């Protein structure tokens, strides 16, 4: 049996785990966000409890220099990130501007208005990064912090590309109370930032894959790097689907069923 054959299970498990968690978490958040707004308080209360548990978990897992520690740190970071996404999509943490941009608004004023619409959320994300950094300071396992920072970078790049202009907005993910955000998007075939995002994302993915391949199969480093490489690769894929006429979002139609009951049908 070759070394590649022996390494395959070590690659497969973290890769499949990251894919499954990404798909399931996104769908669950979309489903909860599509329920009547009277349910949001309960959803956020439960999510807050999970986020607190995740912060405790990532603090303890930071001392585990093992594959289990890598999985725990990664999962905990995604739970905290899920809280950030829910708080935004449910309208709890957005920004001071809660109305659409006027027609014809462009340039720096348009960018400033877009920033005002989401600045509280961006500050919350930054605060989350600082908190995770403090909880994992000088730790043997930095998977949680690296995962969170990667998710932040992915999301920030996506937001900027939506603002500067892409073919696909994925506007079906926006709940009715956030539809004003569409006024800050621009529909274009491509923008100048998009190729840079693809190149940077591809380079990061390749770098992570290379380091994961060089690590001992099944080790903490191999698992952590494979999890991160998978998420970076998914970020590149999501950016590609911003300009390609392909229905990637169809894989989450099950998460949009709650919204369809309210009369907002998925595309």
TrEMBL record:
InterPro entries: Photo_alph_chp2. Pfam families: DUF3623. The keyword Membrane applies. This is Photosynthetic complex assembly protein 2. The keyword Repeat does not apply. NCBIfam families: photo_alph_chp2. The chain crosses the membrane at residues 12-32, 44-62, 68-89, 192-216, 222-252. Keywords: Membrane, Transmembrane, Transmembrane helix. It comes from Methyloversatilis universalis (strain ATCC BAA-1314 / DSM 25237 / JCM 13912 / CCUG 52030 / FAM5).
């Amino acid at each position: 049996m070759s070394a590649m054959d022996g390494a395959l299970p070590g690659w497969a498990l973290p890769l499949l785990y990251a894919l499954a968690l990404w798909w399931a978490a996104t769908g669950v958040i979309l489903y909860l966000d599509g329920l009547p707004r009277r349910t949001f308080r309960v959803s956020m209360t439960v999510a807050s409890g999970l986020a607190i548990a995740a912060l405790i978990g990532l603090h303890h897992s930071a001392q585990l220099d093992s594959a289990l520690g890598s999985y725990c740190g990664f999962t905990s970071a995604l739970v905290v990130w899920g809280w950030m996404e829910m708080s935004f999509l449910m309208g709890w943490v957005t920004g001071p501007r809660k109305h659409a941009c006027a027609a014809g608004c462009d340039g720096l004023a348009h960018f400033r208005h877009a920033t005002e619409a989401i600045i509280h959320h961006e500050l919350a994300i930054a605060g989350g990064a600082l908190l995770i950094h403090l909880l994992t300071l000088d730790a043997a396992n930095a998977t949680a912090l690296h995962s969170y920072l990667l998710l932040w970078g992915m999301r920030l790049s996506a937001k900027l590309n939506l603002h500067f202009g892409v073919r696909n907005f994925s506007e079906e993910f926006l709940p009715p109370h956030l539809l004003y955000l569409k006024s800050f998007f621009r529909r274009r075939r491509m923008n100048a930032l998009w190729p840079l995002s693809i190149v940077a994302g591809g380079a990061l993915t390749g770098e992570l894959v290379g380091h994961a391949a060089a690590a001992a199969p099944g080790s903490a480093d191999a698992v952590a790097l494979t999890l991160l490489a998978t998420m970076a690769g998914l970020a590149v894929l999501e950016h590609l689907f911003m300009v390609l006429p392909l229905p990637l979002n169809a894989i989450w139609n099950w998460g949009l069923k709650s919204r369809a009951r309210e009369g907002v049908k998925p595309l």
